[in-house]
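@channel sequence for tomorrow's demo:
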Amino acid sequence: VINLNTTFSEDEKKSIWSFVKDGGSLLILGDHTNIDIMTSLNDLLKSRGISYRFDSALSLDSINGWLTCYNKMKNPINFGIYNNEIEIGVGASLDISPPAFPVIIGDFAFSDYGDIKNAKKAFLGDYKYNKGEKLGDVVLVAGCYYNKGRVLVFGDTTTFQNPSLPVSHRFVSRVFSW
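structure tokens (generated this afternoon):
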């Protein structure tokens, strides 16, 4: 599911979760500050302990970007992957609670709150750290198991976009293999 902007019906959600419960995998890709996408994806994920925040997850390293800021948790998608292969750009951060677990965290990063009045610029915030915004340990990718199945959620779509794939293809392959 990528940037879903309509909510699934209850029957559709039951079908999706039945598929996952029986051993299927669900990959969800979302992005920063899109209220329609966040609402739809959060509705789908509400019982899995993962939700999209109305923000942009941003690296505090102005020179290297995310390269120096990733903390890759022990998960098969991360084994043998170099930071430059992940290719996360600007996406939403994720809130997690059990049964969810972090897969990639931005250690040296912050959560820039979106601006509901900034419709012309995709509801983006000011790209500066402000008092009260989450600082450090920003969840960028999360997962959970559901019975026999797996769920993997990305707060950003950049990794999977055509311009990134020449660099991120090994990581993307790991994602789909898991």
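heads up for whoever presents: Strands lie at 25-29, 50-52, 55-59, 70-72, 94-96, 101-106, 109-113, 138-146, 149-154.
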